[in-house]
Amino acid sequence: EYTKEKKVGEGTYAVVYLGTKQSTGRKIAIKEIKTSEFKDGLDMSAIREVKYLQEINHINVIELVDIFMAYNNLNLVLEYLPTDLEVVIKDQNILFTPADIKSWMLMTLRGVYHCHRNFILHRDLKPNNLLISPDGQIKVADFGLARAIPAPYDVLTSNVVTRWYRAPELLLGAKHYTSAVDVWSLGIIFAELMLRIPYLPGQNDVDQIDVTFRALGTPTDKDWPGVSKFSTYTQLQTYPPPSRDELRKRFIAASENALDLMSGMLTMNPQKRWTTIQCLQSEYFTELPPPSDPSTIK
Amino acid sequence: DPFKRYIMNEIVYEDPFIKDLTKKNEYIASGFRTDFVYDRLLTEAFM
Amino acid sequence: FRSSSQYRLWSFTKEQLDTKRVDTNAHAVAAIEEKLTMFKKDYASDISEEDAKMINEKAIPLTAEEELKLVDFYAKKVQGIAQHLNLPTEVVSSALIFFKRFYLENSVMEIDPKTIVHTIIFLACKSENYFISVDSFSKKTKASRDTILKYEFRILESLKFSLLCHHPFKPLHGFFLDIQNVLHGKVDVKYMGEIYTKTKKRISDALLTDVAFLFTPPQITLAALSLEDEQLTEKYLETKFSNTDTIIEASKDTNEKDKDSEVIKEDRPDKINYILLLSLIDQCKEVMS
């Protein structure tokens, strides 16, 4: 039923091919999970992709078309998505407007909200995991780090999310975090779309903490109760949070509502950070310009 | 879901287990919120 | 829930479930009969009169009922071993559900349950983020790593790659909270705590039956709760769900004023069919008992 025509990528646990679904002629991507290399049987990332993509059905989340075994390899058949947001941000030949950014943020937030309402954390949101379909729809992809929102007593690893998009509670070693970590990543992506360069590009995990707090202020127990109890907190440099004016200067093209939304998503204290619902209901999405029609975005 | 089949009413919930967690620093600092927990449990009950 | 793989791929009526088991058994029997015929033909000259008689008497495939007994026997083993390993309730329950689903698609005559018990538990650990390396799992269970890994793919395929299980435990906690709200001031919270623990045990045992194929997690929870304390459960459900009917009844013969409450209640799209819910719970209680 499926052909593998062209190898388009290779990761630690999978090789990705372009192919065609023979019966319909539909273009598809096939993620072939390498199985021989893992001593513990099927790799956890594959288990997670299969487990969560099987449950999610939303226009802004990548579609799992089919799964099959072949030559003792597990193959995930996914919808074909030719490009991603990282490509768009980096390619200076591509001009995009505030209305385009609004449309991308709206679609991304809808996709992530759908994951959260199904009690699934993504834990690796970044521009190159936000793929773009031929008709301009943003699709949240790569659920290799996803997990169900934990039961209260579960202990989670803080070593998740690609560094530049990692929330401060994770940087400080939190083990009982929530869906707020995904919202932080989206806030950084929003900033990056407006700046067209990475917003908080730390060189390493320690530098990431410093870069984050230098840009957004070092949190204190006053605004984030308990933050000083993190073992890594003591060695931190203290920086003042940026004034609204400084933020305006940094994000010249951003409207007041856009700055409100970004600040809500980048609230240090995860308990106070906006949820995807609050983000979707922000006035940024109802003020002019309206979000572009995805199919018209170049 | 336009109509949830429950009203979250944290004040009346006697749930020592969850309440205890709100006193633990590593939970508070991590972003732990009782309303997130209750909402999930109630959603699963009325799904 | 309706968009979940548990509902889409693993929910059946009793009839469908029986048919599925009969079909799986028939498929295996046909394969065995064929092999036997081949065997007798290929080895006709080597088989003594005695052997031929023995084969005809002993090499009789299992019936679907016999299979089910064996599956139930090993399901208890899966639960026992997983609990012995001190795995969290959700992991134990997922292992159980995986095992029962696997033997809807496969016959014990094709894959001996003994050979997949450990793999099923190992896969459930991975799936529930309770990762144990195959080497430490092998040490704990005394099963060899090859045995543990051998059927992992086959199991995943038979499960139709649906790993996310909705168990009735979170709904139990949810109802525990909602009862406090709906029956506020009328229930003793300490008593509720005792009920909670007993009901949780009932749910664990219930997963050995077919309830997870036949009912939704909340229905299983309410059935277990009702078996534990029928009066409390009925009081809760009546207060919560039936009042729409009674209000409608009452306002039929009262003045115009109540009509409004009837319209609001009547039109709420989320109104539950209380009578149907009660009958589903009764059916579920029967299967559990």
Structure description:
- The complex is a heterotrimer of chains A (298), B (47) and C (289).
- Chain A contains nine helices and ten strands.
- Chain A is of the alpha+beta class.
- In chain A, the strands form three sheets. In chain A, strands 1-2-3-5-4 form a five-stranded antiparallel β-sheet, covered by helices on one side. Chain A has a three-stranded antiparallel β-sheet with strand order 6-8-9.
- Chain B is mostly helical and 47 residues long.
- Chain B has helices at 16-21, 25-30, 34-45.
- The radius of gyration of chain B is 12 Å and the shape is elongated.
- The mean pLDDT of chain B is 91.
- Chain C has helices at residues 5-10, 14-42, 49-58, 64-84, 89-105, 117-127, 134-141, 145-150, 152-158, 169-182, 189-206, 211-214, 217-228, 230-252, 256-267, 274-288.
- Chain C is mainly α and 289 residues long.
- Mean pLDDT of chain C is 90; it is low at 245-266.
- The chains are: A alpha+beta (298), B mainly alpha (47), C mainly alpha (289).
- Chains in contact: A-B, A-C, B-C.
- Chains B and C meet through α3 of B and α10 and α13 of C.
Topology readout:
The complex is a heterotrimer of chains A (298), B (47) and C (289).
Chain A: E1 2-10, E2 14-21, E3 26-33, H1 44-53, E4 64-70, E5 73-79, E6 83-84, H2 85-90, H3 98-117, E7 120-121, E8 130-132, E9 138-140, E10 147-148, H4 168-171, H5 180-195, H6 205-216, H7 244-250, H8 256-265, H9 276-280
Antiparallel strand pairs in A: 1-2, 2-3, 3-5, 4-5, 6-8, 7-10, 8-9
Chain B: H1 16-21, H2 25-30, H3 34-45
Chain C: H1 5-10, H2 14-42, H3 49-58, H4 64-84, H5 89-105, H6 117-127, H7 134-141, H8 145-150, H9 152-158, H10 169-182, H11 189-206, H12 211-214, H13 217-228, H14 230-252, H15 256-267, H16 274-288
Helix pairs in contact in C: 4-5, 4-6, 5-6, 10-11, 10-13, 11-13, 13-14, 13-16, 14-15
